[in-house]
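Re: the 590-residue chain
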Amino acid sequence: MIHLPIEIWSKIFKNLSATDLINFCEAFKELEYLLTDKSIVKKFDVQGNYRFVEVDFVKFIKEKVQYDHIRSLNINNLYWVPLKDLRSLLSLLTKLEELFALETNLSLREKDVKLYGNLRVLAVCASVNDCNIDINLVKVHMFLLKRFCLKVTSRRGNITNLYRIFKELFALRELWIEDLTERPSELINYDMIVYKLQFLNKLVIKSKISIPFLDYKPVGMAKIFESRRFKSIVIIYVKCPQDKIVHLKNISIFDPFETQLEIAWDVLRRFYCEMPYDVKAAEKIYMTRNVKDAQFEELNFCHNKCFCNINFITATWDFLKAPNSRNLKKLCIKSCVLQRKPPPTKDHVVENLERIYPFQDIVENCSKLEELEIMSCSSNDNDSSTERSEVTFCNVTIADCYMLINQLVNLERLTVEVPIFVNGNFLIKVIQNCKKLKYLKVLSCGTNEMLNRNLSLALKDAKYLEDFSIESEQINLESLLEGLNEINSCKLRRIYVNCKHEDTRFQTELETLLKKNPQLILVALAIQIEQTTKKMLIRKILKEFCDNKAKYYYLYPTSESMSHVSLQHVHKDILQFNTNVSIVDLADFR
């Protein structure tokens, strides 16, 4: 196989990321020449490649890669690479046209901007202070930009500096902008940005604060997507003909409804203006006024407060059982979707519920699912007296249905909030059957000893697990760490444990874990430890193994204090309770 012609290898690798190629060449040194092949390294993608923690990134590019061929470079999340090294690399890539550098040390400082002269596409993080540069540099070195993605990390400074930069980006066609500031002194005036960009075709706004009504119909842009998930809001505008521009809330399909999906779509629309599907499907539905031909890649039903309403749950089932969901990749649901099918009458006594789990049909229909989030549902959250007669017993009948998750063999990411009455034995089967599982996040309210025990037993089979997070009232850390230590592979990258009570000694197991897994990047323990000497000992162990700039090893005495930890944004997905489905992640900007 190694002796295949270079033409065959080129076809195999030209569509893969550079990370995959590097790993392959590491295993087969005789194929390192592939890193000089123009068709392969033209798009060089090493996003989040932790290999470069131990290997000098710039030196590797200079010595191993034919860098003259690189036209597109993705270094997102290489937050530990020194700024001078990144600048040195960019100075070599004189023909670079696309740079994706989110969560790196690059920004919009003057020395950085001088390296962007040939770029058509740029993704970067910057504070408002970084934008305080000579505007002539923007005119000379950024005037070719057609697509721009900007994360505003800090508002300290004069925000007018930001507007000055956009004023000079005459060629810009697409803008993604995320405001990470939670308590700004003043809002970003998006109108001032949009009306300076005469040729803008697409605008993506993501913000942690409420955004006032924005109407861009005068410049021919329609709002085709709006999402409010947990702590962020996303709004997307696209250029389209005037006859297509209508208010997003007024989008409807025409009667009579022909399919179950159309009926379900209308039911959800009546409950809430925000719909569950992804951006691609939202744009198609907006433009065609037709839901029948939409193909869903992501569906998120956790934004609506009418979770336990029978009509809402039935509509959710219809969405997920439709042919339009056969290529679904990401799904976020409430646990009430796991319940047995209610009877046609309103007599919702448990004994009267049909012995049918619609979730079984969903699992079979959505067999390509790669990411699943299941949030626990409490019918007590529904305060509407008019809906109480419609409430089902999702907190009773869902227990057996968790076991069906293990049939989703293509799962790579699983976030599951486990009710107190579910013992967690389903996790053993999930880890055994879902061989591709890389990300596991378990959330539990109250004390659930059986869940902790079964999770510890399950971990030994998690050979491909890279990210692991658990939040619970009480955790036996000694048993949990023993389970992690039984994993034979060395693929673990991030571990987060959050609990209010733990009564065991776990120093030995923690030290064993850190010795066995030198590749660990994040170890964050938000636990309650009463003894001062024990706290000092744990911190000493963590400090001893935190031996490079990429690693973050933390111990915090309470789970509440962890929310104030100032970590690189790249790790906040595992520390914070949020959703990754039917939202816009700026890392998807390509």
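Residues 6-248 form one domain.
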